[in-house]
Amino acid sequence: MRVLNLLLFLLTAILFPAIAQNTTPSVNLDDLVEELKIENDILYFLDNDETEFSKIKDAPEDYFIKADDDLNFGFLEQTLWLKIPIEHEVDHNKNWYFEIANPNIDYLKVYLIENGQKNFISWELGDIFPFNSRVINHRNFIVPFELKKDTKYNVYVKVYSSNGINLPMKIYTGDAFLEYSLFSEMLYGLYFGIILIMVLYNLMIFFSLRDINYLLYVLPIVGNVIYFSSDSGHNFQYLHQWSPGLQKYIAPLAISFWIITSAIFTLSFLKVRNYSKYVYGALIGMITLGLLLFGYTFFGNYQTVMELSNKSTSINAIVLISSGIYVYRKGNKFARYFIMAWAFFTLGILTHTLTTEGVIESNLMTRYALAFGTIMEIMLLSLALSDKYKFIQEDTEKIQESLIQQQEKDRKTLERRVKERTRQLDKVSQETDRYTRKIEEAYGEIQSMNASLEKQNEEIESQKRELSKKNEKITASINYAQRIQNAILPSIEAIQHSFPESFVLYKPKDIVSGDFYWHYESQTHSFIAAIDCTGHGVPGAFMSMIGERLLKQIVITDRTTDPGHILDQLNHYIKVELHKQAEGKGALKDGMDLCMCVYDKKNSILTFAGAKNPLYYIENNNFGHIKGDKCSIGSANLDTFEFTTHKVRVTSPTVFYISSDGYQDQFGGPINRKIGGKKFRDLLEMIHKLPMDKQKMALDQFLIRWMTGEGKTEHQIDDILVIGFHLKP
């Protein structure tokens, strides 16, 4: 094929201005022309108002601007009009074909009009139309021209596209067009054939070796091929002729897929995470960018999507080659071919991107830079994978050699240790024989001692049975004492007769208790007391019986109603009856702490006296606290001390509480501490509005939780007594 790039300029228009005023530069077609690249003598202007063709064809020459040799306008938001004058000087009929070799233009309309004529021929083209609607089924846009001899024509081209507007144009004869098409498709077939062979070859290696790197290597190649076949128009021609809209999604989706898979391949192949967290983060960032671009493809403006895609591919290529360089410098030797591969591809992708955006001239080299870079990338990455296995094999051989040397060294060491161990075992065996003889001698002595121990065990078992019988008798006696003690305690019914709204929480530590409660009701007064005797168990129970008898004598027999005087007399009787021996080892120190409350039913006055223990009361949500005197019953001096009587006038419903110290002193909780006075008061304030039986239940449940929380169980350390009663005026 004779390829003659005849660029004819009408120099007379420059050299002789007078002639140029009446002469329009044109493209000359003559007998020698079979293929003519149109670069010069093209006029253009950008249209913002969708001007009708009738105005365009009648527009004067100064309406247009002379185009540069490279018809690469980049991304435009306006409609582009081109004017191409053609002069036909062929003396015989030939079929001419007008080609625009960019298959990614949205819309083209080509007008052919003879000079001086009004009628014209037009063709509508573009990838917004189904492929089968084209005049000539070719991946590029081809229009057939029928031209008369010695006739001048004007070709007008209307263009708008959301993709980059690059317009390489040629005019062919029929034979030249056929030769060009066959040669071009042969080159493309060679390219796709090389890619297919490399994909199948590496897939076979993957299925053989089960090395994920070979599969990850194939994936970006697939993305590359999809994009390139879309950019060259082959996808539209062979895969989705029926769907023009799909053309707008394939290219950016293929770019997104390539960015994601190439970054994943780099992470896996170079083991980036072992070398740098920053490089690892950069590659993760590229994967994220690819995913965002993938999603934005379906919702964003196509022109914006393609601009972002072109820039993202360049950024990704730079990140990949930078990652390879960094890892190589850190000691990863099989990264060398990886760097070369991405260097070629980066050069190709940058050239393609700059050509698409109109920054550099579009020519044969720039248009096929991406294909060349892709082929070099694929071949060099295959070498990189082989190189990796070469280094792995060398390292494996070194490791095996090292292991063999280490095994030989270990064998000699083991032999030496076995000999030493054998000598040690012989020595140990001799020692063992000597100790065996000693053990046999000791065994005879142990047998003798066992016989003696068996005799002693029989005596201990006999004593145990005797103690068990005594313990049963003592326990039975204490249980009977409990029934006696319970008999002297006032009944709950009697207490609730005097104080209808009341409760008694009574929990002895042992079978019998040193805490007891006392109650009496006369016609004018109601008495109730909470008494805590010294000690607990049997000693405390004896003290409680003495205290109960003395209180009956003081209150019922002597008719004392003042709680302070009651405590004074009780102190007197305890000291006289119980502490008769004032000095010496036989002197008793027993006594009791108590709260005594006397309610004057007629005047609604509650009088209180306390020996160490306080009275708590809550009136109209206000918490009151009356401390008891600091002396216990049995310890106060008869000549100088008198217990204090306190008065509380009941003018509104009031809740009163008296207790021993057993509830507050109980250990437990998260850090095994006492409940304490403050927590006890807070608890009373929290529950005081509940019915009295619910208050008793709440106090009991809190105590149980306190003693058994945090997976531990604390034992009760003292007798527990809490009394609550509600008075209304």
Question: Which secondary structure elements does this structure contain, and how are they paired or packed?
Answer:
Elements: H1 12-15, H2 17-20, E1 27-29, E2 35-38, E3 43-47, H3 53-57, E4 65-66, E5 72-74, E6 79-88, E7 96-100, E8 107-114, E9 120-125, E10 141-145, E11 151-160, E12 165-166, E13 169-173, H4 174-209, H5 212-231, H6 234-238, H7 247-270, H8 277-296, H9 302-329, H10 336-356, H11 364-367, H12 369-488, H13 492-498, E14 501-507, E15 515-521, E16 525-533, H14 537-557, H15 563-578, E17 592-600, E18 605-611, E19 615-619, E20 622-626, E21 646-649, E22 654-659, E23 667-668, E24 673-674, H16 676-687, H17 692-708, E25 720-727
Helix pairs in contact: 4-5, 4-12, 5-7, 5-12, 7-8, 7-9, 8-9, 9-10, 10-12, 12-14, 14-15
Number of helices: 17
Main sheet overview: 7 strands, mixed
How much helicity do the residues have?
40-55%
Known CATH architecture of the largest domain: 4-Layer Sandwich
Can you count the beta strands? 25
The CATH class of the largest domain is Alpha Beta
Terminal-residue CA separation: 126 Å
Low-pLDDT runs of 5+ residues are 1-24, 581-587
Helix/strand structural class: alpha+beta
What name is given to the CATH topology of the largest domain? Phosphatase 2c, domain 1
